[in-house]
Amino acid sequence: MPFEDLHRPLSAAGFKGAVKWIILVSGAMLVLQQVIGHNYLEQTLGLVPTAVFQHYWLWQPVTYLFLHGSLFHWLFNMFILWMFGRELETRWGTADFLKYFFVTGLGAALCVLLISPHSTIPTIGSSGSVFGMLVAFAMVFPEAILYLYFVIPVKAWQAAALFAFIEFFAALPGGGAGIARFAHLGGMLTGYLYLRFGGLLSVPWNPFTDLRVWLNKITRPKPKPPVELHELTDELAMKVDQILDKILKKGVDSLTSDEKRLMDRYSRLKK
Questions:
Q1: Which of 63, 66, 187, 252 could form a disulfide with 132 if both were Cys (CB 3.0 to 4.6 A apart)?
Q2: How many domains does the chain have?
């Protein structure tokens, strides 16, 4: 495995690009929340299922990503976004990175809307997209070393699996969780499906697809060996003519190994 993927999971990409603007806009909105008041902005720009379904406030599944409940909430999300997002943006480019950010945010919002369509409680924060970033980082750099709580070393794919496990059981009844847990899970699931099956971004590794590839190798029928021609026939002559035409157009180097063997067999039969 590449040294950088194992020991240098984060680059010095710096504070720039879409990551910078997401942090700045979210920070400005946090200040605005303090000036105007949390309740008004959260009811207007946060994700309120009844407002979306009854009043068709269709901007909310996007704008809720830029509101946060507290300074700590904002700092935590922006730190994770900066830590994972800057590496992904550097690798993918700004356009694909932004697409992924909003797709996972919309997936998280859809999960909340489907689970609690009659709720009047606003959901705010970019946590759904942030958890989606963790999944993306784990799929692109599965062997990268992360330090949980800045102490415990784990591989990126292990960290993603651990957080998915925690969020799932916290979302169950009695887990002491709110709707936001489903937003986290929705962002993670959307990110996985988007990268794995969307065909939009190249992801080199995933433990589930590794299993699928292994099964395909076992179950895929083996190709039949080429038919050997032991005498001069019209079929052989036709194949040789096609190969000679190819040589005239593209040169001898263009021949495949099968074509070279066929020409060798033809020359021996002609003797």
A1: 187
A2: 2
Structural domain harbouring 252: 234-270
Residue 227 within any structural domain of the chain: no
Q: Find which of 6-15, 147-156, 179-188 is predicted with most confidence, using mean pLDDT.
A: 179-188
Percent of the chain clearing pLDDT 70 (strictly above) = 75
Residue 66 has pLDDT above 70, yes or no: yes
pLDDT tens digit sequence for 25-43 = 999 999 998 888 778 889 9
Residue 26 located in a structural domain: yes
